[in-house]
Amino acid sequence: MWFLAEGAGLPALREHLRARFQRWLVRRIPPARSVTLDQRRIFIFPSRVGFFFFACLLVMLVAAINYENNMSYALTFLLATLFVIAVLHSYANLSGLTLRALRAGEGFPRQLVPFSIGLACATRRGHHALWLGFEDDPEAVAVSVMPERGATVTLYREAGERGPFRPGRLRVESRYPLGLLRCWTWVDLDLVGLAYPRPLPYPEPLGSGAGQPRGRPARRPGEDEFFGLRDYRAGDRLRQVYWKGLARGQTLQSKQYAAGAASLDWLDWDAFPGIARERRLSFLCQQCLDLHRRGRRFGLRLPGNQLAAGAGDGQRDRVLRALGNFAPPPEAER
Amino acid sequence: MKAAQQIPRNALAWIILCQVLLLAPHGLRVPAWLLLLYLAAFGWRVQLYRNRLPAPTRWLKLVLIGAAMAGIGWSYGSLIGLEPTVALLLAAYALKLVESVSRKDAYVLIFLGFFLLITEFLFSQDLLIVVYASFVAWLLTAALVALHRTGEGFELAPLRVAGVMLAQAFPLMLVLFFLFPRIGPLWNVPIRAHAAQTGMSDFLRPGDVARLTQSTEVAFRARFAGEVPQARDLYWRGLVMSVLEDDTWRSLRFFEAPPAQRRPAPVEAVGAVLDYSVIIEPTQQHWLYALRYAEPQESGVMALADYTLYSPATLESERRYSVRSWPGAAIGLELDTWRRRLETRLPEGENPRALALARQLRAAADDDEAFIARVLALFREQPFRYTLQPPLLGDDPVDDFLFGTRAGFCEHYANAFAVLMRAAGVPARIVAGYQGGEINPMNGTVIVHQFDAHAWNEVWLEGQGWMRVDPTAAVSPARVEFGLETAVQGEGSFLAGSPLSPLRYRAVSWVNTLRLRYDALTYRWQSWVVGFDSERQVELLGKWFGRIDAKRFVAVLLGSFGVVLAAVALALLVRAGPRRDPLLRAWARLRARLVRAGVPVHAGDSPATVLARAQQRYPAAAADLGVLAEEFTALLYRPVGSGDLRRLQQRLRRLRLSSQ
């Protein structure tokens, strides 16, 4: 038999069972952006506390038998049947819960990336004390969904290497109402997060106009020309704040510097020839971050993909996303 | 899955409440210092919660546990037995509260709470106790629910959830309760070694019965199959005392009798028959009470040589037994020499005047019967008094009593009578038990209280066997006819020690009715629930299901579980389904109405589109339809108040769709 074969020890057996379980799970609960829990998807089993409770019941039953005490019998049986009733209540607590993928996060490798999940309740009872977490992640978040009111839960997952990544199946678990039973499910909300390239310090780019604007000396951000004042916005850097005005009793204002309309830069795949793909993307990533910090306008040229020039946070995110998602056509791999 | 490990504040509040309620009924049973320990534990827990005090260290915990065990050993004299065990559990429960921080500890506290409820039942299964315990069980379940809720503020929802679940579990519990086979004890368990024995003891000293008559507690309840005999005929025999030593009467030990004399001699059962069952309250003793001549109707009840009934097992909880009695049958017709010697033996050199009197009276009488009549006449004619407060007697108590004080209670008369009989060579002994009883008109049971305790005599006569003689009846006929209360009316000593007992207010009609109703309820409770044993089980299941076999058992069990669980599932999953938005419901109704009226409606049409089409079809109602379209569209996109809905409903009712 397969598990008696040479070298197939216990770990192999466990691995085999795990794989089988995963395949079964995919068939039983296929990935979907929105899942409503029903009897196909809910598993239920006594928790450790449940087994402890059962042991207590046995002791109580022995006491009832030995003392031939009818009220002790009654209490023991009441608790035992409570356990049975609790199966239905535990199940009902998960049943009817709708989980929806709201937003998959993005981030740099090894960063914690947020995933937002919407919970909706269609019953009058609500869903109490749900614990949500990704598979093989010990961290979980508790949430209760009240009737006719939704809830949003944000879970964090560490991003892997560059590219799209799946956080894994979502574990939804509840021990409500008595803690004697563990009622859980594994849903795949088809969440796909994105890991950007890891930024790496880049060498002087080749050829025309990449890193530095042509014909102008490199300037440090503080040396950009003063442009004017505007009202302070959350997120403005402290050195930008017009402290003198504040001291004079004016409202909080920020100094604006013109980055210079002419300073259009291109992040170019071809600026780093002969470098491995991931490394190249890492250079571009760092470049993008530098340019954004300086408040420049910049665009991106990748094989098979070109992003028009732009500035600000939006442009940075667009560029990082393009870098993260980059999957080159085969001929570009040289 | 890693959970927030702390006990939620709500759950802690419920647990502490439960702990107080669990302790309360045990409160009088445990040493007072244990209550102080609880107070300290609560105080510490609260301060711990407020970060005013540190959690106990490991060695402090060990010291506390050791101290608690030592204290209990010191208070009870041992750690073995039910009472010390319960006290130990309670102490552990108090200490556990202090060290409880995590959810795991909370589970231990709650499950231990359920266990403590069971220990409470080992002491009493009284109806009130059971009601109280059910309430505590409800709170404990609520604590368990509260432990799993995430809400921050105080809420009563756990109570509701726990109540619903317990109510759903209740019918299943009943099924298990009646079907679960009642097997005997699996092994010997610690008994209530520290509980006071109640009722009669097998010693009788002057003053013992009088002390019993201060108690308002019920000794037992009896229910007769036929008519209840007159109160004066209800002599409930419990113990027969044949040995007089050191001014104390006691019953003969089983092994003091020669082997041939240990079993009752056969009795010719003739005359009227009484069938009845008795439910006796726990006494921690062995004897059972019955009218003579009694034959037990079940195993587990022994008949002794002196025709009393005996339970080999200590009566630790309520016990029900059935008896058949022949009041007219003669018992002990043959008196063997050994027994004659035993029943006429008197201590040497005591009560010389009484002995002389007895011999003198016997010599004057023709036979034993005439002698007995003479002695009873003596009690009747001389100024003897029946009192609950007799004066003290000296070294020769019978002499003092007969020639000095002449005031006493039943045991004084029984004692004096037996001594006089024996002095004249007539075999005589004392019977201790209860006399009379109160008939409860609600259910026809006879309630026998401790204050019905009585002592009388049996005298052996040739050809008649052991005859009952009650010298007290000669002194105070009212005692036997109407009971103790009437007999000591002039004295005001009836239940002098229990000013609040409802028995003292029997004259107040509604108090008495209430008391008797409750007693009838207690009887039902005891005979059907507390006294439910294997015999009752066989009887009951036989009545319900005809034949009792395993197949039927399992079918009933599974069937009842299936029905109840299906009903619960229906309530939980179907009825509690999504509640539809009233606005959408209203729109669905209008839409259906328009479809019936012939307006073309397609899936995905908005209310505005459909109503616009309806306007074309029914121009007469165009204005109304237009307003409705506006209303629906507006309400779909803003919060709906109850006033909005009412207005919409009125508009819908007013809407008339006529072709012209």
Automatic annotation (TrEMBL), chain A:
Membrane-spanning parts: 49-67, 73-94
Keyword terms, alphabetized: Membrane, Transmembrane, Transmembrane helix
UniProt-recorded name of the protein: Uncharacterized protein
UniProtKB/TrEMBL annotation, chain B:
Domain named Transglutaminase-like: residues: 402-473
Signal peptide stretch: none
Domain of life: Bacteria
GO molecular function list: peptidase activity
SMART domains: TGc
Keywords per UniProt: Hydrolase, Membrane, Protease, Transmembrane, Transmembrane helix
One BP annotation, GO: proteolysis
Transmembrane segments: 30-47, 82-99, 106-123, 129-147, 159-180, 553-574
Name by which UniProt lists this protein: Transglutaminase-like enzyme, putative cysteine protease
Species this chain originates from: Pseudohaliea rubra DSM 19751
